[in-house]
Specification:
- It is built from 7 helices and 15 strands.
- It has helices at 6-26, 45-61, 92-96, 168-179, 191-199, 213-225, 250-258, and strands at residues 34-38, 41-44, 65-69, 73-75, 79-90, 103-110, 113-121, 126-131, 136-138, 141-142, 155-158, 184-186, 205-208, 229-232, 243-246.
Length: 274
């Protein structure tokens, strides 16, 4: 087993502390004050409190590091080489509807490259983590992406654009193509956990468009350290938020399907008879 570095241990402790607060608030979700940043962006007191818990813990342990926060925006630190990327509650809509599927996501970026990631599922008490070059883990068990190589055997997960978000028609086109090629499509509502579950082999692949860095940073590294790959859609940088994640065999096949580049087999040619 690989042991987490001191910095990753601090990230894990912060995620668990925020998760404990989220569990408490989840039990009183009907009493939470809820506001909206935009048509599909719900923010609750739980988001803000969880983010505050994480930020305080990390600032105390690593003073000077910068932050990219879902609620608090970008905070420039005195140490320009390090930045934490934080989603305190990924799956807010699930949380607000009493659906027990949401997560805390924390990534560490050093000199512009992802170096560590932690995703905590408070309701299942599962902590996924990775560190550059050290593999991906769930608590003390090594993670590996699934080994399936055929799309028609794969269970694929995705996200559906919510009300008020552009891209609904494009998604329906993509879904129509994908569902005819794969075993099944699922939609759970937390991109961070979708990526963690791809790393764990629970899902074979994941695709989505329009996600933000805090949704995906930790999950990207965890998938890659579990032996998977991330492919940006439409030949764009995956970190812009539109991508496919899977093992090295399925990822390019799913990307082709999502983009409508499904390769058809060449027509068979009957041999000529003498």
């Amino acid at each position: 087993m690989s042991r987490p570095s001191p910095t990753v241990s601090i990230m894990m402790d912060a995620a668990r502390a925020a998760g404990r607060r989220l569990i408490r608030d989840f039990g009183e979700v009907e009493n939470l004050q809820v506001s909206r940043k935009g048509p599909a962006d719900f923010v609750s007191a739980a988001d803000k409190k969880a983010e505050e818990i994480i930020r305080k813990a990390l600032e105390k342990a690593r003073p000077g590091y910068g932050f990219l926060l879902e609620e608090g925006g970008e905070v420039i630190g005195s140490d320009k080489t390090h930045r934490f990327i934080i989603d305190p509650l990924d799956g807010t809509l699930n949380f607000l509807h009493g659906i027990p599927h949401f997560s805390v996501s924390i990534a560490l970026e050093r000199e512009g490259k992802l170096r560590a990631g932690v995703i905590f599922d408070p309701m299942r008490n599962e902590l996924f983590w990775s560190e550059e070059g050290q593999g991906a883990w769930i608590d003390n068990r090594r993670l590996r992406v699934g080994a399936r190589r055929k799309l028609n055997e794969a269970v694929v997960t995705t996200g559906i654009p919510q009300l008020g978000v552009n891209g609904g028609e494009l998604f329906l086109d993509e879904l129509a193509r994908v569902r005819t090629e794969v075993s099944a499509v699922r939609r759970f509502g937390s991109a961070a956990l979708d990526l963690a579950w791809v790393a764990a082999g629970r899902f074979d692949a994941f695709w989505e468009r329009g996600l933000q860095p805090w949704d995906i940073a930790a999950g990207f590294l965890i998938v890659q350290e579990a032996g998977g790959v991330i492919i940006g859609l439409d030949k764009k940088d995956a970190f812009k938020g539109s991508f496919v994640a899977a093992n090295t065999s399925l990822a390019p096949k799913l990307a082709e399907t999502v983009e409508g580049r499904i390769r058809k087999p060449a027509p068979s040619v009957k041999p000529r008879t003498a």
